[in-house]
Amino acid sequence: MKDVNLGIVGLGNVGSGTLTILAENADEIARKLGFRLNVTAVCSRSVKSKNLPAGLAPKLITTDWREVVSHPDVDIVAELIGGTGTAREVVEGAIAAGKSVVTANKELVALEGVSIWKKAEAQGVTLAMEASVCGGIPIHAVLREGIAGDHIETLFGILNGTSNYILTEIEENGSAFNDVLAEAQRLGYAEADPTADVDGFDARSKLALLASLAFGVQLTPGDIPTEGIRRISPIDFHYAKQLDCTIKLLCSARRVEDGLFVSVRPALLSKKTIMAGVKGAYNAVWSRGKFGADTFYYGRGAGPNPTGVAVVSDLMRVARSLHPEPAHRVPPFAYTDLAAAKPLEIGRQHRHWYLRFRITDQPGIIRDLSSILAEHSISIDAVLQLPDLDKQNLPFVITLENSPESAVRAAVEKMSKLPFMVEPPLALPIERGV
Amino acid sequence: MKDVNLGIVGLGNVGSGTLTILAENADEIARKLGFRLNVTAVCSRSVKSKNLPAGLAPKLITTDWREVVSHPDVDIVAELIGGTGTAREVVEGAIAAGKSVVTANKELVALEGVSIWKKAEAQGVTLAMEASVCGGIPIHAVLREGIAGDHIETLFGILNGTSNYILTEIEENGSAFNDVLAEAQRLGYAEADPTADVDGFDARSKLALLASLAFGVQLTPGDIPTEGIRRISPIDFHYAKQLDCTIKLLCSARRVEDGLFVSVRPALLSKKTIMAGVKGAYNAVWSRGKFGADTFYYGRGAGPNPTGVAVVSDLMRVARSLHPEPAHRVPPFAYTDLAAAKPLEIGRQHRHWYLRFRITDQPGIIRDLSSILAEHSISIDAVLQLPDLDKQNLPFVITLENSPESAVRAAVEKMSKLPFMVEPPLALPIERGV
């Protein structure tokens, strides 16, 4: 099968992440597509081949984007420069040259997306822009295809990672806004001029884009009522907690009979909602559909590699559509072939463990249990026992350090034969994250 | 533009939800596609035209699925019968007749998916199956396209709504497993024979399917180590809480150097994770990619309308690919046109409100504030004041009943001129859900 050839314009954060993934994940990508994506041309202001990830061998390395879009071998151009100056020339130049375009450019798409799309449509090429909002969350794919059949009524977003990070710090450490902002600037999480982030302007552009995808409307970001987070203080989190709420910079859009209410502003959000758990520099989108009810999506808002995943996923989708094989044959299982596989023997897996016992209380229990664990080279993390329980049917817990499951199972098997056991121990792994 | 014609086979829960959405959401669907989806043929054991949603006028209503798959006008067949008997005949019959197929059938896809897909490929037609696992979450679209560029390392799932509902009830009400199960059966949330749900077998089939999409492997569900939730008791939630954890029936798959660890079993899950907030009959998937880091997806696991959204979204995707216009022109903004729109005047929106004041303490403050609120026909919900605060800069809070924003803004404007105000009141909406 024919490979598809890429021209990458811009090697900043997102461009570097994209090249890293195209190089390091090339075999996985080929297994999914059934053909390879070649990095045929790259362009940046100061590109040097020695800076490219190992495994890439572009035919063209240049500082002139015109050479990339006009290169006869290039099928798809990725515009990863950002801004609305040269980036717009690159996108429009590529479309005029009959190339499909993938872009990560929020500003350009928010301001000129519709006009660019119409040009692409006239040329019979594709415009793809998953990376333009919520870099690490595939929210375009979700709204455009995954839940396309629904009628979305309400959409909430936490769309600015910097302000969410600042609010989380105020909540968890009780620090004042200005102190947290200064620290975030020192750590590089916030810009020297933080206005776009903390006054809500960045989030408002993203909300306008999401509203296009969710409701089919074209909003002017400046028309969206917008307030930032500068006035939120630790005392507000104290009171919010009394109301079983947290505080988030919430982007919201509600469809009603005669239009759309939209706003970007700090709001109290019930801790009973899944969205209240979004902490630090993460983004999230929560939608309610007339038919599908609530769905919720969460991931990194930005970063070279998360945004690079969005760019590469778009490149794969567009590459499939360009391929001589029928475009609709997107493999239902995501890969072009599935390898028959046996799971690994679970006994080899190391986890932390929770062992819960029901025993008839008597002296020497901890000694007997800890001896068996020691025999199997398993370390105890903690012993937990609630007060005032029935001594004839006493439930207590031992947690274990990271241990191979085979050893834990063997120890539990041996423990279950001890005379004071009311029932075999219950063994559950402890998961702190994926 | 040419419409695309559908044959719907099976009018149980999912079939009814699908028809409801195709009827009630027809205009929205057409705005997204640029053409219409017609329900041309329907088949069920006891179909009557008077039971169809208003607005549908199929040419063929039959009890014989063969008439649907062989109908010359039908472009796509939706198999919504379930099971592996007749359903398989329908799917294979439709493919043999050159029709693309959308299915919601987990059992069939888990057992025969690859063989059916190869038949579809040979015939040049499409097989789509978004509804087959996590009905309300577009996890197929996410894994197949949205984050296709990533290399997934770990995947966690809460894939059985019934067992998650039971665990949530044990945790929140301290009831015993058997009592909660009996109540769930009485309410229709659990089957008379609950084995598939509470012993993990349903979740294990779904995990096998997700592992195909995430890792490109074909697992036999019976090879996956599986434990159910029958032994989880309220005491385990007490101890889990001491460890800052909850307990979930966790489906897990980890890719390591030489293969995949997979399991379905109850596990302690840190309350610091976003997944710990998944309560009741919801499903969720959490993945960690080598490049894109953590992403998380949440929604209804089942139900006629959420699953219907998945079926209709698949029908839309396949219909686009069949359409004479180039298949790759999936509109980047999800709709074929965007309507330029002004947001509604935000003052008309009704919300609950949080007003936080900083005042110099003196008599009559509550009287003055409540008078202004009463003038604007706004009802007070609560007055909150933390003890032991600086009386010269006293922050306290009034929360308001559901009120129009224009009235709240006018009242706040008037309040900000009161002599005891240290700064203008801070007004934040209170959101309990989307």
Automatic annotation (TrEMBL), chains A, B:
GO biological process, one term: threonine biosynthetic process
Reaction catalysis annotation: L-homoserine + NADP(+) = L-aspartate 4-semialdehyde + NADPH + H(+)
Domain ACT: 354-429
PROSITE patterns: ACT, HOMOSER_DHGENASE
Presence of the UniProt keyword Amino-acid biosynthesis in the record: yes
Pfam families, A to Z: ACT, Homoserine_dh, NAD_binding_3
Record-linked InterPro entries: ACT-like_dom_sf (IPR045865), ACT_dom (IPR002912), Asp/hSer_DH_NAD-bd (IPR005106), HDH (IPR016204), HDH_cat (IPR001342), HDH_CS (IPR019811), NAD(P)-bd_dom_sf (IPR036291)
Residues noted as binding NADPH in the record, renumbered to the chain: K106
Binding positions for L-homoserine per the UniProt entry: E191
Pathway the protein acts in: Amino-acid biosynthesis; L-threonine biosynthesis; L-threonine from L-aspartate: step 3/5; Amino-acid biosynthesis; L-methionine biosynthesis via de novo pathway; L-homoserine from L-aspartate: step 3/3
Keywords tagged on the record: Amino-acid biosynthesis, Methionine biosynthesis, NADP, Oxidoreductase, Threonine biosynthesis
GO molecular function, one term: NADP binding
EC number annotated for this UniProt entry: 1.1.1.3
Active site per UniProt: K206
Positions of NADP(+) binding: V9, G10, L11, G12, N13, V14, G15, S16
NCBIfam families the record matches: PRK06349.1
Annotated family: Belongs to the homoserine dehydrogenase family.
Protein name per its UniProtKB record: Homoserine dehydrogenase
Organism of this sequence: Paludibaculum fermentans
